Amino acid sequence: MIYKNSLGTTISYIIILTVIAFLGIITLYPFIYTISMSVSDPVAVMRNQVSLLPIGFHLDSYFKIITDNRVWQAYYNTLWYTLVGTSLNLVLTIMGGYALSRRGFRAGRFMMVMITIPMFFGGGMVPNFVLINTLGLYNTRWAIVLPGAVSSWNLIITRTFFHSTIPDSIPEAAKIEGANDIQIFTRVIIPISGAIIALITLFAAVSFWNLYFPAILYTYDIKFHPMTVFLRNIILMGGGDWGDSSEVAIMNSIQFKYTSIIISILPIICIYPFLQKYFIKGIMIGSIKE
Asked: Do 255 and 37 meet the contact criterion of CB atoms below 8 Å apart?
């Protein structure tokens, strides 16, 4: 019986590892292929000879792209949207989640209903555009940041975290010591809420970094476009007018697309593995209550 159980366990492990390895290969292949296409010989790229590993080694497309002012303008816009949008989202979400988690807040249940409804029913693209235009935000940076200032999902997660991990006795004890609500929130609640702060920061930062459709919908000036829109323009233009001659431009057009993809996703790829652990914490938030 022990031998059968051990054999069955071994077979299960082999199957699981095989499936994981297969999924890993499927996941890594597009990244490896994109990198190989961006550094291979432009002639090999044009002839579609690259299947996995690079053929030759050329960085001309990288040098030409990073010396283009449009790339740095798009990068600046992406960083601005990410930093400002994430900061605004974090402040409003943490404050709102803590307020909704307190049992003494009588309007909390009604507010939660109002917050949950937009997750299932939206006003639509045209009403949102009319609202942004009426507020005078059209073709400004705030038209991209303010509509995403608060996420209903993040707010619910934050409220659940505070409700399940911070008992009412903690703020009550601080009140007995003479602290007001602002002091309780800034000096007591915030220092013990590092996990949810890191989680919301990660969610918001990834969302604003990958932001695409609002930039297309609410801005028409290229000086407000993030890297995602810049990349889309390069793909639609077939590589753009990057070369010194039409022949060079045609030969390098495909490679420039892959190079732009690498440049646009490189920062988030470098940062994401170090913050991935907070996704696990986000899954566990509210799952265990004592």
From this structure: yes
